[in-house]
Design a protein that fits this description.
Length: about 190
């Protein structure tokens, strides 16, 4: 979706939602006052015989059902993007969400004080939302680890040319393992 089509999509969403709400309101009003509906229809279409109140209620129930379906269709969560498009040097590059998550996980796991990282990616093709769970080793201030992780994730997304929507980092203590760490640790003398 291009930047120009976003306002159109938002306007379409607003119009369809308002139409659905309007249909529900009209259907409810006609359901309550079917005699008024019959009188109005008789005056507009003079030559047409009007159906019974029960038939009008069935018609309004069908209209209400259509309105409810439209509202549910608009409120139903959209499918998450599996690929994200970057526009670079007059062309486009498409990255899979799994690749972007793997790159960010690798970057975050390489930070001092981080034992491991798990990254999930969501959003739409034009906006990337990142949630990362970072296992922080003891001995380094959590705020420092979080700031480094935020900066590294932003740098990676920016380097890929992708627009960043939301970035959320959660810290948890690193799990102790019986095997020694494969990464060298820095000791202070």
């Amino acid at each position: 979706m291009s930047r120009r089509s976003v306002p159109v999509a938002v306007m379409n969403w607003i119009l369809v939602t308002l139409l659905a709400i309007g249909m529900l309101a009209v259907a409810f009003a006609l359901w309550q006052e079917s005699a008024l509906a019959i009188g109005f229809a008789a005056s507009v279409v003079a030559g047409l015989r009007i159906a019974s109140a029960a038939e009008i209620r069935e018609l309004t129930a069908a209209a209400a059902g259509c309105g409810i379906l439209l509202v549910l269709a608009e409120l139903w969560p959209r499918r998450q993007a599996t690929h994200f498009v970057s526009r670079i040097d007059g062309g486009t590059i498409e990255y899979s969400a799994a690749l972007v998550a793997e790159l960010i996980e690798s970057d975050l796991a390489g930070l001092d004080g981080v034992q491991s990282a798990q990254v999930s990616i969501s959003g739409e093709r034009q906006q990337l939302n990142i949630t990362a769970l970072v296992a922080a080793e003891a001995g380094i201030e959590p705020q420092l680890i979080a700031a480094r992780a935020l900066g590294r994730a932003r740098d990676r997304v920016s380097g890929l040319g992708l627009p960043l929507g939301r970035l959320h980092i959660s810290l948890e203590p690193a799990k102790l393992s019986a095997a020694p760490s494969a990464r060298p640790t820095q000791s202070v003398a």
